Amino acid sequence: MTSGTYTPCTGGPFSALTPSMWPQDILAKYKQKEASVDQVEFRYDEFGFRVDKEDGVEPQLLREPLCEDPQQRLRWQAHLEFTHNHDVGDLTWDKINVTLPHSDKLQTLVLGGIPHTMRPQMWMRLAGALQKKRNTETSYRIIVKNSSNDDTVAAKQIEKDLLRTMPSHACFSNMESIGVPRLRRVLRGLAWLYPEIGYCQGTGMVAASLLLFLEEEDAFWMMCAIIEDLVPASYFSTSLLGVQTDQRVLRQLIIQYIPRLDKLLQEHDIELSLITLHWFLTAFASVVHIKLLLRVWDLFFYEGSVVLFQVTLGMLKMKEEELVQSENSASIFNTLSDIPSQIEDADILIQDARTIAGSLTDVMIETQRRKHLAYLIAEQGQHLDSESSISNLTKIVRRQSQRR
Length: 404
Description:
Blueprint: H1 24-31, H2 60-63, H3 70-83, H4 104-112, H5 119-126, H6 129-135, H7 140-146, H8 153-165, H9 179-193, H10 201-211, H11 216-230, H12 241-257, H13 259-267, H14 273-281, H15 290-303, H16 306-318, H17 320-324, H18 329-342, H19 346-357, H20 362-379, H21 387-395
Protein name: Small G protein signaling modulator 3-like protein
GO molecular function: GTPase activator activity; small GTPase binding
Pfam families: RabGAP-TBC
């Protein structure tokens, strides 16, 4: 520890954050031996969120701090060494390929969870963000410079939302918090790079969550990977056409995978998208505990948006009996809304998601998307010139640099 720089205790407050996000002012209070507990205004978990005890009992997820399993880390190291056995000497991240080919072994490892200290490097490779970062024609520094205008519509909208994104987090709770300027730059950069999208509130929660674990530039390129590759192009557009389409696809999948729930929703005339649209728009960042989110995102960055459907179906299946036994529409709606916050075991969730919807493929999802997107556009009175128009809506996001 250098003078004036404090390091979190293992498993203690802020210990799971990327080091540059450690809030030194709060850590200083924790570190002062003479300080009483009262001098620390709030308690924080290892991710930097304020911890509120209710009736003296903490949720199960908060009782044990995030800890890496040494055996799990060894398995990951062994796999990386095996797949990069042409290298001589110690294996370092700069020797590992910018993208990793899919394999049964890698999928098994991802399903079991990526060791937390390896997540920044692995996420960048699994999502294709590292390749984007290295191949970009326009550097992040230039993007930040070009998007620094305070007077744009996007900049003004972003400014209003900065403190609304993660108000209970030490790094985003006030304008002086260390994460706020980073989030501002990332969101402005995205709005500049993708002028057809601009700024969407859903991106704020995703970007803020990424900034907890990745350096600013890496978080930016992860957002680019999500926008360009992992979800349809119109997900974050002002029309939200892509994410609306996915709600219709989800509804169709419920008919196929959870028919009892489909019948219940029809009988009570419940519009599920009022609840689940936000789950998809933020890739669950706004609705599940951060420990769960990490495991879901391990899969999301590896397999893409099919995971959003699998996890949602898994959650709904886990609560199917409780939903079926609900007495009225209000009870059903409330139970559905509360599902993500009540899931406490990532392994069970992932297992259930794979059990119920493991057969779901990208091709199946894409087929459904094209059909429901056409229906949605027709309903909204928008004109499609050709079949390629649908393809463009679901596949192509144009960058600023490509539109000059």
